[in-house]
Known about the structure:
Structural class: mainly beta
Strand content: over 45%
Oligomer: single chain
Radius of gyration: 14 Å
Order of helices and strands: EEEEHEEEEE
Amino acid sequence: MRAEQAITIADGIKIQAKGIGEITVATEAVNITLSDVWHVPDIEGNIVSVSRMVDAAYLVEFGPTTYTISRNGIRTKLEEQLGHLYYLVQGLDTEI
């Protein structure tokens, strides 16, 4: 785990990331492991950076109401859209 780091969120407010680690997103098809994930206790829920997933060799595809992530020929639907956000509510195993 790395030291605390200040991050700026969309409305310009600075909050603290308390550590950086690795998480595993458990899906029906495959476990997706993401590295260098920030633990930010002041943010409710999970925010996933699509650009970081693409950098990690995942293909992210958005449809009208769902999105999928694939890698090495394995494709998994993650969650549904609500309003203007796509939610990730699958089980998470964390090591932060």
